[in-house]
Design a protein that fits this description.
Layout lengths: L1 H11 L3 H17 L5 H17 L3 H18 L4 H17 L3 H17 L6 H16 L3 H17 L11 H10 L3 H18 L2 H17 L3 H16 L5 H17 L3 H14 L11 H14 L3 H18 L5
Helix pairs in contact: 1-2, 1-3, 2-3, 3-4, 3-5, 4-5, 5-6, 5-7, 6-7, 7-8, 8-9, 9-10, 9-11, 10-11, 11-12, 11-13, 12-13, 13-14, 13-15, 14-15, 15-16
Length: 328
């Protein structure tokens, strides 16, 4: 059961059809055991939750991981590593659903426990640092997140990990650099991360880095190159499981690209369609809707409608303030 569920968890990110039968086999084996280990049960819970998340049912995925974590803690089982894995997955799921404040205590605790247990400089610490930095970035604390990302990259540079360096550090680091206007650095980091991701077969990271490159190129005035890279990213994403954040990011960037190309009518249709599909303006708190709202503000301002642009910008600001920690 443990082997099948672990395989399903790993496969789910890149081969949904291949992961499903492995998970089914693992769950059948688990049920057949009279008193299954809580650790094995957690392996299957993690795989089931990951499959549900990729299918779009994030709330149910969260419920499964929370219950598995509670079961292990209630039993008093000495399973620090397993608890850490469950918290890391819960972190990812909370972020997918926009619960960034709920995520922060988890990422801070994971990083503290890793370091307190003498695992500084290991892959485990790098993953914990990355999760913490991403959490800060999602809360809008971009400069602080970039500092943690740089620390993680410096740790990699001092280590002998080589090809064992985990994929996932460079992608969000490049995003933080691009959002601070450090586009040349963002390009360098994103291209390096694409090389890492391709070596291990992680197209999700590749697609994200391609969008970051498109944004950086557009900011640098390299409009044609940006258009080409955005098309490449969209083609990569088309083959993968869809998450709200990725889709909103793609839509927002497509609108900005259309605006840069001078096609204001197309840019307006792009943002209007996306916002309508998201239930806006009735629903102003959908996960990552702020990305489209910011793009809509820019598009409407360019279209000569400052009142509408201000309305979109105001809603985007309210969304950000709701996510951010108390400024005091």
């Amino acid at each position: 059961a443990a082997a099948e569920c672990s395989a399903a968890f790993t496969l789910a990110a890149r081969d949904r059809e291949g992961a499903a039968p492995r998970l089914a086999a693992g769950e059948r084996a688990l049920v057949a055991v009279e008193s299954p280990s809580l650790l094995t049960a957690s392996d299957c819970a993690r795989a089931r939750a990951r499959m549900l998340a990729f299918d779009g049912d994030v709330p149910q995925a969260i419920a499964i991981v929370e219950q598995s974590l509670a079961n292990i803690q209630a039993a008093g089982t000495n399973a620090v590593n397993r608890e850490s894995l469950l918290r890391a997955q819960l972190t990812e799921l909370y972020m997918m659903s926009g619960r960034f404040k709920d995520t922060l205590p988890l990422t801070e605790r994971n990083l503290r426990e890793v370091r307190d247990s003498g695992r500084s400089g290991t892959v485990t610490e790098l993953v914990a640092m990355t999760n913490y930095a991403v959490n800060l970035m999602r809360l809008g604390e971009i400069s602080r997140s970039a500092t943690v990302f740089r620390e993680a990259e410096d740790t990699v540079a001092r280590s002998s990990l080589g090809d064992l360096t985990p994929v996932g550090i460079g992608a969000p680091f490049a995003v933080s650099l691009q959002r601070m206007g450090r586009n040349a650095e963002a390009l360098e980091v994103a291209n390096l991360e694409i090389e890492r991701a391709k070596r291990v077969g992680n197209p999700m990271v590749v697609a994200g880095c391609q969008r970051t490159i498109a944004k950086a190129l557009l900011d640098l005035g390299r409009v044609a190159e940006a258009r080409q890279m955005l098309a490449v990213s969209a083609a990569t994403l088309q083959k993968l499981p869809r998450f709200p954040g990725q889709l909103q990011d793609l839509v927002a960037q497509r609108a900005m690209q259309e605006m840069a190309d001078g096609d204001l009518a197309a840019a307006k249709v792009t943002v209007d369609t996306s916002l309508e599909e998201g239930g806006y303006p009735e629903n102003k708190t959908a996960p990552v809707i702020d990305r489209t709202l910011r793009a809509a503000a820019a598009v409407y301002l360019k279209n000569g409608d400052p009142a509408a642009a201000e309305s979109f910008a105001t809603d985007a600001l309210a969304f950000a303030r709701n996510i951010a920690r108390d400024e005091r």
